[in-house]
């Protein structure tokens, strides 16, 4: 008998049988002619949406259609950080919901996603930046979210090897959220895929969408490389490809696509036990369970659909790392990669119906896509199932750019490359 429940006892039993008794993580079904819901995009958000549609709302006649293989997109191309240390009312409750869902995810999915609440520390380097972090921390605490403002001595007791006396960027303290941390990115995709499959969802890989069929103002299905699939409801959740896929339905979105690079060093002994961001430049770093330093920084400054970046950003990111802790200068870079970011005009996401009947949109995640995965899936599923926004996602309207209700978390205006 094949087993699909993961437990210590089943692992021990299967170890005696050469692990030959496990069921596949998910099926490889042929597409059906019609589904109640078809989700375009088999990344973390698409898979989470399918899972919550089945688990919370009882809608199991669902297909997730992915152009490649599960985990080949942004869900497998990020720096694994999860947090809810936002400042604006539209964002704090949403990302806090995501963090609460992360905290119970492994039990919910019966899958080891390697959730590690090791804490995230944002460093400040001036009195003005300290005051800005104090305002953010107070806003978080007013919403019931944990936040602590640390002085230099408290930070130094945690990370004594930082360059505190840097002539240009002296470290004065930091804002810490101890419940933040990291989650294994590809395990999130695999866990949601496996859990959705167990509830009856069809996961259809290698089925690139080539057209969206619109009949009398209503989305009725998709043309794919594996044939036409009819849908009563159609949901777009394709991250950096949002503009291209939406254009198949005649929609123009307030989104630009940019490349975000990330990097991993060779494995070294335990060095950083949390997540740290450098406040004098865009640099963030943590250490993986394999020992590699995982870090990243700013977007490449040009629009692109390529999953690779350019050398000026590599130089800028490494300069930030060296300014923070010069001792990493002798560590060798192992590899780098790029993810396509769907940058909205105010730096905040969109979860809403589109002007086309039965067509729903989840897009514009900028830097926040991975950390939002559980809440994005849950609230998008709610929108699809109930045809009304979830309470924590009401601010993420598509028309907010036309009505002036932007959620400008960074205060950068309507320039996506600055968010």
Spans of at least 5 consecutive residues with low confidence: none
- Shape descriptor reads globular
Beta-strand residue percentage: 25-35%
- Number of beta-strand segments: 18
- Structural class, from secondary structure content? alpha/beta
* Major sheet size, sense and barrel closure: 8 strands, mixed
* Alpha-carbon distance between the two ends: 52 Å
SSE order: HEHEEHHEHEHEEHEEEEHEEEEHEEEHH
How much helix is in the residues?
Answer: 25-40%
- Number of distinct helices: 11
List the helices and strands and how they pair.
Blueprint: H1 8-15, E1 34-40, H2 44-57, E2 62-65, E3 81-82, H3 92-103, H4 105-109, E4 120-124, H5 127-142, E5 148-151, H6 152-158, E6 173-177, E7 181-182, H7 185-198, E8 202-204, E9 209-215, E10 218-224, E11 227-236, H8 242-247, E12 255-267, E13 275-278, E14 283-287, E15 292-303, H9 311-324, E16 333-344, E17 350-353, E18 359-363, H10 373-386, H11 400-403
Parallel strand pairs: 1-2, 1-11, 2-8, 4-13, 11-18
Antiparallel strand pairs: 3-7, 4-6, 5-6, 9-10, 10-11, 12-15, 12-16, 13-14, 14-15, 17-18
Helix pairs in contact: 2-7, 2-10, 3-10
